[in-house]
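Structure first, sequence second, as always.
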């Protein structure tokens, strides 16, 4: 006999769930073996794993102590840098009126260290001379190309008074000799930064290009935003900038001066912590304050440059006071306690489900197991793709979600039982109970998600992990409810054990008090033995308690009419 249409649809939905699950495991396997960035275990936060602590000491130009406002602003920018690097659950705080303490879960990689320790102000300077170049400065039309390597010859007779940032008059014999003999590998020489109104000798981070730069013409505070993206015409990666009003005006003046100049004096350099992170050529007059930088970018390098430009404008200079490994603030013992608590919660839910719902309890247990598998693999993927780390607060969110998830199944099963008490068949009760339960569950879960979002946005960073895992598991709960629990019930309702209402199935109509055909007509119950009679009385009492007053009156009227009719026939 071919399966019925609801059964076939249920099996198709379960097959889809299997495909989704296999796909998620495949994505994580791709991260583990293809990129070596993911793992088969969730990443832990600082409070459970420990990590790296970097202490930055603030320095002002006049040597005075920094204000708390400056420290708070610098801490906020450093937090943005850390978040942009994909590190989650970090701890960044000010200390002692002069230091900023950065704590990162796990071992900080070199790129993250550079983002944090690149603490000098971002400066924009014109290029006077360079030994090599490889990128170009473009306007929004995106039509320009990279320029050829310029001639580094400095054969010019400087004038005493420079007129602009790229004027050759800045080159004195002493500066020329210093530039020609400057060693990019000498870190001590690179840390010596001259005043903002004087030229600077700098190199790129890879020590491949040496630059002679004019005075500072703009600083990082003039940049409102920097985003990486692809050009529509060429598909290559670029970094799109947006200057504020004053920055746009000044940049427009610079672009007018540099556009059409001989290389390398058509370049404009971005200098961060003594390194030229980019020195594109000006390929147009850009007056709207929205240039873009193009070149041999990959997605990763374009994103890194955008982050450096967006978060590079610190109000203070910093020196790294110390960098060391720190132990977990709570440790493995607290994690173990949290996991034991979760297992106890699961066990209690399982016991309650089996006692209250008999064999239906196994559906609840299976649903929780599927939800646990999906939650686990999604947390692993989020650790790879978003830098999410599981803190103790996040573990608490997962534990709380067990109770919320059980609520969904209880609402559904009670709706099914209500339909059975009304005298409907088991298959009809499953479908009608689903229609009635899903509206209640959707409303309840929407409120849970809204609460999680509000908590995540407004709460302290230590609570965000709880809000995130609570919202995530709520979404997975709804997904499991729709794509697993209901299809399983559709299939079970058409089996002999559940479909015939076995006493151990949890769907026995007589045990639930379904002793009437409809809401107004009771069904005759066999009373061949004392046990059956007692069960019948209990079932009738359960049914009567669940009838409304109007239904009870109507039932009494029908019974009275039936007795009167029987007496007339006997007479």
């Amino acid at each position: 006999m071919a399966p019925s249409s609801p059964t076939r649809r249920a099996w198709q939905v379960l097959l889809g769930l299997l495909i989704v699950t296999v796909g998620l495991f495949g994505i994580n396997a791709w991260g583990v073996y293809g990129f070596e960035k993911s793992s088969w275990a969730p990443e832990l936060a600082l409070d459970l794993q420990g990590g790296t602590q970097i202490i930055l000491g603030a320095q002002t130009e006049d040597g005075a102590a920094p204000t708390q406002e400056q420290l708070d602003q610098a801490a906020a920018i450093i937090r943005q840098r850390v978040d942009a690097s994909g590190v989650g659950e970090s701890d960044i705080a000010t200390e002692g009126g002069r230091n900023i303490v950065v704590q990162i879960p796990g071992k900080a990689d070199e790129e993250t260290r550079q983002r944090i320790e690149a603490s000098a102000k971002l400066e924009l300077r014109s290029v006077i001379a360079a030994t090599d170049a490889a990128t170009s400065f473009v306007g929004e039309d995106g039509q320009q190309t990279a320029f050829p390597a310029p001639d580094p010859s400095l054969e010019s007779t400087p004038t005493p008074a420079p007129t602009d940032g790229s004027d050759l008059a800045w080159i004195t014999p002493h500066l020329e000799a210093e530039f020609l003999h400057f060693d990019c590998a000498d870190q001590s020489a690179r840390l010596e930064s001259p005043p903002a109104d004087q030229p600077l000798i700098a190199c790129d981070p890879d020590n491949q290009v040496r630059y002679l730069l004019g005075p500072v013409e703009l600083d990082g505070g003039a940049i409102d935003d920097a985003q990486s993206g692809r050009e529509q015409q060429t598909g290559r990666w670029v970094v799109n900038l947006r200057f504020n009003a004053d920055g746009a005006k000044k940049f427009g003046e610079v672009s007018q001066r540099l556009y059409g100049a001989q290389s390398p004096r058509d370049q404009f350099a971005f200098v961060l912590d003594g390194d030229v992170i980019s020195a594109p050529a000006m390929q147009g007059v850009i007056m709207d304050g929205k240039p873009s930088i193009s070149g041999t970018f990959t997605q990763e390098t374009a994103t890194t440059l955008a982050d450096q430009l967006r978060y590079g404008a610190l109000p203070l200079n910093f020196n790294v006071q110390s960098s060391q490994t720190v132990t977990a603030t709570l440790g493995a013992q607290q994690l173990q306690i949290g996991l034991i608590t979760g297992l106890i919660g699961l066990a209690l839910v399982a016991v309650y489900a089996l006692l209250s719902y008999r064999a239906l309890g196994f559906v609840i247990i299976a649903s929780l197991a599927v939800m646990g598998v999906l939650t686990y693999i999604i947390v692993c993927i989020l650790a790879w793709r978003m830098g999410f780390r599981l803190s103790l607060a996040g573990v608490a969110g997962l534990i709380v979600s067990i109770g919320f998830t059980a609520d969904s199944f209880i609402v559904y099963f009670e709706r099914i039982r209500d339909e059975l008490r009304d005298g409907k068949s088991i298959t009809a009760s499953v479908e009608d109970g689903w229609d009635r339960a899903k509206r209640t569950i959707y409303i309840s879960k929407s409120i849970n998600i809204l609460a999680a979002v509000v908590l995540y946005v407004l709460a302290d960073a230590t609570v965000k992990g709880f809000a995130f895992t609570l919202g995530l598991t709520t979404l997975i709960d709804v997904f499991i409810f729709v794509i697993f629990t209901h299809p399983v019930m559709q299939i079970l309702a058409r089996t002999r054990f559940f479909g015939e209402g076995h006493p151990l199935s949890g769907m026995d109509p007589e045990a639930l008090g379904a002793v009437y055909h409809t809401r107004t007509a009771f069904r005759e119950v066999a009373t061949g033995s004392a046990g059956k009679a007692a069960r019948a009385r209990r079932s009738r009492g359960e049914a009567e308690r669940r009838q409304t007053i109007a239904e009870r009156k109507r039932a009494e009227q029908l019974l009275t009419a039936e007795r009167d009719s029987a007496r007339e026939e006997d007479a």
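Margin note: The chain has a mean pLDDT of 79.
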